[in-house]
Q: What sequence folds into this?
């Protein structure tokens, strides 16, 4: 179908504004990345080329409209340029979003490994030290007034390991952790300090 340039003025204005905004954002980001890493991003360079082509398409249509009055389908090249820009933007930022999501998931995994006990799912000793520091500050400021600490350990863990094997010992730890979870999990945070030692912080 054929459209007059006047009919596509909103599309052209939107494309111009979007192109300028993307160029400004990319320019700042490219400068920051180059200063940090001295590495060029090839995806961004491709996007630069497409933006320039988009500008060129719009200029061609404006020249055609100004020079020939109102040629048939006067906004042909503007639409082509705009579609190319949209496709490349989707491709570039889709891949960058996937990379960002992967890094975010990796950060969550690393955080879990740093502060969680894999066997029981409880927080570990490192997490307890951080919680203790925060609680000290909150108690000093009066934000926390009531606090209950429950310490527990499993009896005869060494005997279970020696007589029935380490798998039985692991099961023993997991069952003990489940009992603590059932008893105190809804009231606060649970920690495995190591081996057969556990702590519940109820605040």
A:
């Amino acid at each position: 179908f054929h459209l007059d340039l006047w009919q596509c003025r909103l599309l052209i204005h939107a494309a111009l504004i979007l192109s300028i905004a993307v160029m400004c954002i990319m320019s700042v980001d490219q400068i920051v990345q180059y200063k940090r890493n001295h590495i060029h991003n090839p995806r961004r360079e491709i996007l630069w080329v497409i933006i320039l082509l988009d500008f060129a398409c719009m200029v061609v249509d404006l020249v055609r409209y100004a020079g020939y009055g109102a040629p048939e389908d006067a906004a042909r090249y503007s639409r082509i340029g705009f579609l190319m820009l949209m496709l490349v933007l989707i491709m570039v930022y889709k891949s960058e979003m996937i990379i960002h999501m992967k890094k975010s998931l990796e950060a969550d995994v690393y955080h879990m490994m740093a502060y969680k006990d894999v066997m029981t799912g409880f927080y570990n000793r490192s997490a307890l030290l951080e919680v203790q520091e925060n609680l000290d500050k909150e108690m000093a400021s009066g934000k926390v007034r009531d606090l209950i600490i429950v310490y527990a350990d499993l009896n005869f863990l060494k005997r279970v390991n020696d007589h029935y094997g380490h798998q039985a010992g692991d099961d023993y730890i997991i069952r003990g952790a489940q009992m603590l979870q059932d008893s105190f999990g809804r009231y606060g945070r649970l920690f495995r300090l190591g081996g057969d030692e556990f702590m519940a912080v109820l605040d």
The chain has a mean pLDDT of 78.
